[in-house]
Amino acid sequence: MLMHHSTPLGLDGKFAGSGTFIRCHKLHGILTARHVIERFDFTIDSRQVLSISVMDGRPHEYSLDMCTLQCVKVGRPKRSNPRAGPDLAVIVLPDVVAKNISYRKNFHDLSVHRRERLKEAKRPAGLWCAFGFPQEQVDVQVSDPKSTMIHCVGLLLLTTVTRRRGVRGFDYLHLAVGCEKLRGKVPPPRKYKGMSGSGVWQIPIVADAKGHPRIQIEKALLAGVVFFETRQAGQSKELRCHGPKSLYVKVRNALIRRAKPRH
Question: How far apart are CA 39 and CA 74, in angstroms?
Fold first, then answer.
């Protein structure tokens, strides 16, 4: 189910990072980390090509001319410490492209049940995980600049929130690294490069009729975005992420402003 919301991002035949399909009212886009798209040229004269994945489980080609896309950057990191955040951006998709993608992928709606979602995400209950695409598990095949085939294995990282903090209206989650599970029999990555832009999810766990715990994957809540991996003594320590307030307030408001007609 989480794979249906997620995509790797490729720029001109090279892997760039991860993203999550979202919508806000009538706008559809790909939520990712700001530093992932820093080299993306969204101008009308751009000749760059964005490659994404819309078919789960097999290599395929789905490329978009960057000149047809728009970008909304949310917040501005300090030059002295860009790794501290904020680090959020949305690639805005044309309506016709979003419609085509929606036949195979799901867009998580940031504009509905906002208060309930913010309240739920403050609770530590449930299963916490991140879903994205480590660079080690992505195979990019390029036949020409406009034809890129992506074969990827999504990483479901089971984790816990070790701490939360808020800075200038943005909230941050720190996720412990461990308990990795990959689709198929693939070893966990040595590094988490490529996970930047991955969605952080909170999945409810309830008791069934016999009192056994059951994961409600159908009610998974998008609760954050991964943007930085901290390392200590050569080992991954934790993933630094934006939290639910950054998504349902900051990103939502930025997309609403973008959607308003300009006079």
Answer: 16
Say yes or no to pLDDT of 179 above 50: no
Q: pLDDT value at position 225?
A: 97
Q: Which of 177-186, 215-224, 227-236 has the lowest mean pLDDT?
A: 177-186
With vertex at residue 27, the alpha carbon angle to CA 26 and CA 33, rounded to the nearest 5 degrees, is 155
Of 124, 120, 150, the closest CA to residue 137 belongs to: 150
